[in-house]
Amino acid sequence: xxxxxxxxxxxxxxxxxxxxxxxxxxxxLREDGMTVVAEATSASETVELTTFYRPDVVVLxxxxxxxxxxxTTRRIHATTPDVRxxxxxxxxxxxxxxxxxxxxxxxxxxxxxxxxxxxxVLRGVVFGEAxxxxxxxxxxxxxxxxxxxxxxxxxxxxxxxxxREWEVLDLLxxxxxxxxxxxxxVLSTETVRSHLKNLYRKLEVRSRxxxxxxxxxxxxxAV
Length: 223
Hints:
Number of strands: 5
Helix content: 40-55%
Strand content: 5-15%
CATH class of the largest domain: Alpha Beta
CATH superfamily of the largest domain: Response regulator
Number of helices: 10
Strand order of the largest sheet: 2-1-3-4-5
Distance between the termini: 33 Å
């Protein structure tokens, strides 16, 4: 069950491999009255401390020494979904930002922020706001516009296709090209081609049109 902390009792775990960065973040947050309950230096330690302390927010470096921030976010979201995660990066990348948000992050921002910005951002995150740039917000809007609409995304309970393969197939049926599917799902074109190959094989088809027809038949059988 989600917990709603008082504004003055926000509890935070800081995860960054650089001790100087951790110190700067800790001092900034404590000066603003927030409580830093733990500091982590690796992905595994971050997940362990988050599971143990159940903070309100994890401030997570995008490039931890042993694992990327996106995968760490995925693990945190799987074990403690009520904990908010904000990724910070020394070199923000929009594609990674989108992927992080889709795996459970509530924010993605540059480490190059002005003093006082981080506490304000984290308070917003705790109380339901997203900590993302206007540019990233626009990319999310554009990705949503490219997503398949009503009806297309209905999926049978039992299917030979994985959820990701259905996502690829839905976009394929909407007329999206391989490059557009990759951009929408934040995947490489090689990965999309691999998914297409697999779903063609599973559906025993050889073309886009045949794949779309086969998917429609599966949906009709499930109704």
